[in-house]
Amino acid sequence: MSASKLSYTINGRTIVRDLDISLHTGELVGLIGPNGAGKSTVLKLLLGLIKPSTGTVLYEQKPLTILSDKQRAQSLAWCAQEHNLSLTCTVDQILEMGRYPHLGRWDSLTMHDKQILRQVKSFVGLDDWTNADVSTLSAGERQILMFARALVQDTQCLLLDEPSSNLDMGTEHKLFAMITELRREGKGIVAAIHNLNTAAEYCDRLILMYQGSLVAEGTPAKVLSEENLRRYYGIEVKVQLNQVTGSTSIVHIPKHVKNQGKRVHLIGGAGSALALTRLLVQAGYQLSAGVAHEYDSDAQLWHNLQIEMVKVAAFSHIDDSSFAQAHTLMAQADWVVLCAFPIGPSNRRNLVLAAQARRLLIVEEEPGFERFFGDQAIKNQFDTLAHKSPVLTKNAVLAHLAQND
Predict the structure, then answer these.
(1) What share of the chain is helix, strand, coil (3-state, %, to 5)?
(2) Of 26, 70, 292, 368, which cross-links 299 as Cys (Cβ 3.0–4.6 Å)?
(3) Low-confidence ranges of the chain (pLDDT < 50)
């Protein structure tokens, strides 16, 4: 099975873009990528459930479009992430649906069909579920049931969308042990997988998708690099060898662990530091702040988060004592960040503080947080700072801090 230059666009939005993909017999291919990468859409395109905007899907060297729905169901089995099960059915009735592609309209199950049902039930461990009502099953048990129904179709290819969703750890590994056995028997299997350690342990090949495009393909060791996971998942990880299984193992490094001990002093006001404060807290930086005016929204957030800060009464000027306290906090910081807030006579000494910082970053203006000045002298004072220090978006500030820790 293969697809060439596969794209899918709906309502002006491109979900899948110029994808080339192949599946060989006896191979388990994992589709990975962050939410919204296009993994489920790719599976539906490969199944023929939706028509590609461009490109071709081939099965046994024939375009999928020339096959009838019945012919496709005899060749490709599908286990969806979400199921619309009739809660009035029994387990056996659900499983029997998997044989419909092989029957005529009025045909009953043959001895061969019933034998396949018995074999699948034994393989998956559903022997005791024969007369069980679907309504009595948990979400995880229904997931196993739908996997079994796909096997009952007895196809050469299996396409699985998050087959281990709703499963506990033990059941997840039992499921992938079964999938591995099916691969050994010669079936070709494509599975969308969120658990990257599971993908690394069981898949022969991984396809990493991001925003609808294939960005990396190859063995798990090649695809699951620290650089790829940082770039496409936005997480810091340590990739190492699992000493027990020999597979690639991924350990997430929480940002607060990486940045523990790093301190940032914020100079803000008028709500200009709200978003950046939250980002820095989530990233694990130690924060101090000031000088702020009492009742300012920045000051209220800093107070609620128990961030050490200096503040003065509303509308008052920054006095010598407050200035000295803020200077002491700032001297303890690795970085000082000057946010985009209005600067006038009452708070202009914040610019003097910023000028004395060892390492200063300036947040550039954003809609709703424009920087304006009480007079030309204050603007000139700011322009001098901006000429000497980086002026960045708040997201770029976060990236700069991470890169220069």
Answers:
(1) 40, 25, 35
(2) 292
(3) 257
